[in-house]
Design brief:
The complex is a heterodimer of chains A (about 220) and B (about 220).
Chain A (H helix, E strand, L loop, with lengths): L3 H17 L8 H33 L5 H19 L18 H32 L5 H16 L2 H6 L12 H10 L1 H25 L13
Helix pairs in contact in A: 2-3, 5-7, 7-8
Chain B lengths: L1 H18 L7 H35 L3 E3 L5 E3 L7 H12 L10 H32 L12 H20 L8 H44 L5
Antiparallel strand pairs in B: 1-2
Classes of the chains: A mainly alpha (about 220), B mainly alpha (about 220).
Chain lengths: ~220, ~220
């Protein structure tokens, strides 16, 4: 019961979705199932929210190191829930969009979450700089190719790159850095991307078959063995 | 007006707080990080609730009504009771919190895994494998032998690069001799792809960094008009 039923569900649903492609009447079954996913995803998110509360409340109650920051996290989480679920300050009332700028939820979203998000990602620019130093040391042939490709792409997207080769005669325009960058993107890069995509595609197909046929059972946890 | 200024100062405080990590881990950064975690979790919770639980599930099962010219209350759409299956599966997911019957949560997990496997098997095979192979196998010199040298070289590079790239991913045969040489050529193409991806990632992070610096210098300090 604990192992066989989930395996049967997986087999039935997986096979149904594959077979449905071959009939015009059931062609869109995948899209209809995706709505189920969305509904299930919310319940999974309830689990995540509950876990967040449990972890931080435990940290606060046991006064573990840096517990004060857990208070900040919980306050942020609860304020956002309160503001969003009740649409506090929303001029259009409960029927209006939750991210309306006048609402408390919208204000926090635009003045806190958006800046924090973009700053967090932009922080990576500094770490990428140190990663570049390590990657750009041309230790062997492969690293040199990576270095040259990355360098041309980087230069090709800047005004400096355009300026560097702007003196070239029109007959050599293909060797200009921006054009070279375009060629790299459209030819060797495309070839590499295709090899990776085909590899991923074949991998997904074989893994999906293993899952549907019950060969792969790791998603069931320890009892799935 | 006051709230707009206040929002800019809050955003600037948070931006500088995140950048303070570049010096070292410190309380200011930890505070901003905790705010980010709490607010992001709350944001996704609220968004998923309104989009999926209300927008897809509630409206699907209980479609809104409107009053027609005869004064009768009429539904705008037919109720979709199949969505209740998704809700039941979602509720089963929550049973993970009850140790004795936690194994029932595997049923919804099995549904998600089975449906994803079935859906991806067809889609990845069609878009990642068939489509890419189809786009690679094409007349190298144009359909009427009318392609320019630039296009011909590009086509040859794409065909050779894809083929050798795939050879590199074939691990069932030892990479020696002509096979090994082809795999080596494949690595070179893959390196160009990684270099190009790296270059693009650096550029996207840089543009985010420029955006944040622009915000600090113009919106906050008013140094740039």
């Amino acid at each position: 019961m604990k192992r066989q039923v989930p395996l049967l569900i997986t087999f039935f649903v997986g096979t149904l979705l594959i077979v449905s492609i071959f009939s015009p009447a059931t062609e869109n079954l995948g899209e209809e199932f995706s709505v189920f996913f969305d509904v299930i995803a919310v319940f999974a998110f309830f689990l995540g929210g509950g876990n967040l509360l449990r972890v931080h409340l435990t940290k606060i109650s046991r006064k573990r190191e840096d517990w004060v920051y857990s208070v900040v996290t919980l306050v942020g989480f609860i304020v956002m829930l309160w503001a969003g679920l009740f649409k506090i300050g929303n001029e259009g009332g409960i029927a209006a969009s939750v991210t309306e700028e006048s609402s408390l939820f919208g204000m926090v979203f635009y003045s806190v979450l958006i800046p924090l998000q973009s700053t967090m990602y932009s922080l990576l620019a500094f770490f990428i700089a140190s990663a570049s130093y390590r990657a750009f040391r041309a230790k062997n042939r492969e690293a040199t190719i990576l270095l040259v490709a990355a360098f041309i792409i980087l230069l090709g997207r800047t005004a400096f790159g355009t300026m560097l080769t702007s003196w070239m005669p029109p007959s050599l325009s293909l060797a200009e850095i921006p054009n070279l960058a375009i060629w790299i993107m459209n030819s060797p890069n495309l070839a590499g991307q295709r090899a990776i995509m085909i590899g991923i595609g074949l991998g997904v197909v074989s893994m999906s078959l293993r899952i549907i046929l019950g060969v792969e059972r790791t998603y069931l946890g320890d009892d799935g063995k | 007006m006051f709230w707009e200024h206040f929002a800019v100062w809050v955003a600037a405080f948070l931006t500088l707080g995140i950048y303070s990590f570049l010096y070292k881990d410190n309380p200011w950064y930890k505070l901003c990080e905790s705010i980010f975690v709490g607010i992001s979790a709350g944001y996704w919770f609220v968004t998923l609730f309104w989009d999926n639980i209300y927008g897809k599930f509630w409206v699907g099962v209980f479609p809104p009504t409107h009053v027609n010219e005869l004064g009768e209350s009429v539904r705008t759409a037919q109720p979709d009771y199949w969505l209740l299956v998704g809700a039941v599966l979602g509720l089963l997911m929550l049973l993970r919190l009850v140790p004795k019957i936690g194994w029932l949560s595997r049923w919804s997990l099995a549904f998600i895994v089975g449906a994803t496997a079935g859906f991806y098997l067809i889609n990845y095979f069609s878009s990642n494998v068939m489509r890419q192979v189809q786009d690679t196998i094409m007349p190298l010199f144009g359909s009427g032998f009318d392609a320019s040298a630039y296009v011909i070289i590009g086509n040859i590079v794409v065909a050779v690069g894809t083929f050798t790239g795939l050879i590199y991913f074939f691990f069932s045969k030892e990479h020696r001799g002509a096979f090994g040489f082809s795999a080596k050529v494949g690595i070179f193409f893959l390196m160009v792809t990684f270099g190009a991806s790296f270059g693009y990632t650096v550029m996207s992070r840089m543009s985010l960094l420029i955006g944040r610096i622009d915000f600090l210098l113009s919106d906050w300090l008013g140094l740039i008009r």
